[in-house]
Amino acid sequence: MFGVGLPEMALIAFIAVLVFGPDKLPGLAQQAGQLLRKARNMANSARDELRTELGPEFADLELRDLDPRSIVRKHIIEAMEEGDAADGRKKKPRLGEGQLPPYDVEAT
Protein backbone atom coordinates (compact mmCIF):
# COMPACT_ATOMS: atom_id res chain seq x y z
CA MET A 1 0.00 0.00 0.00
CA PHE A 2 1.76 3.16 -1.26
CA GLY A 3 5.16 1.52 -0.80
CA VAL A 4 4.76 1.47 2.99
CA GLY A 5 5.64 -1.82 4.63
CA LEU A 6 4.86 -3.25 8.04
CA PRO A 7 7.84 -1.66 9.87
CA GLU A 8 6.95 1.79 8.56
CA MET A 9 3.29 1.36 9.54
CA ALA A 10 4.33 0.28 13.05
CA LEU A 11 6.58 3.32 13.38
CA ILE A 12 3.78 5.65 12.21
CA ALA A 13 1.36 4.05 14.70
CA PHE A 14 3.88 4.39 17.53
CA ILE A 15 4.50 8.07 16.75
CA ALA A 16 0.74 8.68 16.51
CA VAL A 17 0.23 7.15 19.96
CA LEU A 18 3.00 9.34 21.37
CA VAL A 19 1.76 12.55 19.74
CA PHE A 20 -2.00 12.19 20.14
CA GLY A 21 -2.20 9.80 23.06
CA PRO A 22 -4.15 6.57 23.30
CA ASP A 23 -7.34 8.39 24.32
CA LYS A 24 -7.72 10.53 21.18
CA LEU A 25 -6.38 8.03 18.64
CA PRO A 26 -9.64 6.08 18.03
CA GLY A 27 -11.54 9.33 17.44
CA LEU A 28 -8.90 10.56 14.99
CA ALA A 29 -8.98 7.24 13.13
CA GLN A 30 -12.77 7.50 12.88
CA GLN A 31 -12.52 11.05 11.51
CA ALA A 32 -9.90 9.97 8.97
CA GLY A 33 -12.17 7.13 7.82
CA GLN A 34 -15.11 9.52 7.43
CA LEU A 35 -12.93 11.94 5.46
CA LEU A 36 -11.82 9.17 3.08
CA ARG A 37 -15.41 7.99 2.67
CA LYS A 38 -16.57 11.54 1.82
CA ALA A 39 -13.73 11.98 -0.70
CA ARG A 40 -14.60 8.67 -2.38
CA ASN A 41 -18.29 9.61 -2.54
CA MET A 42 -17.41 13.02 -4.04
CA ALA A 43 -15.22 11.39 -6.71
CA ASN A 44 -17.93 8.86 -7.55
CA SER A 45 -20.60 11.55 -7.80
CA ALA A 46 -18.34 13.68 -10.04
CA ARG A 47 -17.78 10.67 -12.30
CA ASP A 48 -21.51 9.89 -12.45
CA GLU A 49 -22.39 13.52 -13.16
CA LEU A 50 -19.81 13.63 -15.95
CA ARG A 51 -21.24 10.44 -17.44
CA THR A 52 -24.79 11.82 -17.45
CA GLU A 53 -23.70 15.17 -18.92
CA LEU A 54 -21.71 13.55 -21.75
CA GLY A 55 -24.52 11.23 -22.78
CA PRO A 56 -24.99 7.53 -23.40
CA GLU A 57 -21.96 7.09 -25.68
CA PHE A 58 -19.71 7.77 -22.66
CA ALA A 59 -21.59 5.51 -20.23
CA ASP A 60 -18.47 3.43 -19.59
CA LEU A 61 -16.28 6.47 -18.85
CA GLU A 62 -13.74 6.16 -16.06
CA LEU A 63 -11.81 9.14 -14.71
CA ARG A 64 -8.49 7.38 -15.28
CA ASP A 65 -9.41 7.30 -18.98
CA LEU A 66 -8.98 11.09 -18.99
CA ASP A 67 -5.26 10.79 -18.21
CA PRO A 68 -3.40 12.24 -21.21
CA ARG A 69 -0.82 9.46 -21.15
CA SER A 70 -3.46 6.74 -21.40
CA ILE A 71 -5.31 8.61 -24.17
CA VAL A 72 -2.14 8.90 -26.28
CA ARG A 73 -1.20 5.28 -25.58
CA LYS A 74 -4.68 4.10 -26.57
CA HIS A 75 -4.66 6.03 -29.86
CA ILE A 76 -1.14 4.91 -30.76
CA ILE A 77 -2.02 1.26 -30.16
CA GLU A 78 -5.22 1.60 -32.20
CA ALA A 79 -3.33 3.27 -35.06
CA MET A 80 -0.69 0.55 -35.06
CA GLU A 81 -3.31 -2.20 -35.12
CA GLU A 82 -5.21 -0.46 -37.94
CA GLY A 83 -1.98 -0.04 -39.92
CA ASP A 84 -1.11 -3.70 -39.51
CA ALA A 85 -4.62 -4.75 -40.51
CA ALA A 86 -4.58 -2.46 -43.57
CA ASP A 87 -1.22 -3.84 -44.71
CA GLY A 88 -2.38 -7.38 -44.18
CA ARG A 89 0.56 -8.01 -41.91
CA LYS A 90 0.45 -10.33 -38.98
CA LYS A 91 1.93 -9.53 -35.62
CA LYS A 92 5.56 -10.54 -35.46
CA PRO A 93 6.47 -13.07 -32.81
CA ARG A 94 8.49 -11.77 -29.90
CA LEU A 95 11.99 -12.99 -29.30
CA GLY A 96 12.42 -15.52 -26.53
CA GLU A 97 14.86 -15.01 -23.73
CA GLY A 98 18.40 -15.48 -24.97
CA GLN A 99 17.44 -15.24 -28.67
CA LEU A 100 19.26 -12.77 -30.87
CA PRO A 101 17.41 -10.61 -33.38
CA PRO A 102 17.90 -11.43 -37.06
CA TYR A 103 20.95 -9.81 -38.61
CA ASP A 104 21.43 -9.09 -42.30
CA VAL A 105 25.11 -8.96 -43.28
CA GLU A 106 24.33 -7.40 -46.67
CA ALA A 107 22.34 -4.53 -45.16
CA THR A 108 25.40 -2.83 -43.70
Give a nutshell description of this structure.
The chain is mainly alpha-helical. 64% of the residues lie in helices and 0% in strands. The mean pLDDT is 83.
Number of helices: 2
Number of strands: 0
Large-scale geometry: flat
Please trace the helix and strand order, writing H or E for each element.
HH
What does the average pLDDT come to? 83
Estimate what percentage of residues fall within beta strands. under 5%
Q: Characterize the biggest β-sheet.
A: none
Straight-line N-to-C gap: 51 Å
Q: Write down the Rg.
A: 26 Å
The low-pLDDT segments are: none
Work out the helicity level: 55-70%
The class by helix and strand makeup works out as mainly alpha
What does this molecule look like?
With 108 residues, the protein is mainly α. The chain has a domain at 15-86. The protein has helices at residues 6-54, 68-87. The mean pLDDT is 83.
List keywords for this structure.
108 residues; mainly alpha; 2 helices; 0% strand
How are the elements arranged and paired?
Blueprint: H1 6-54, H2 68-87
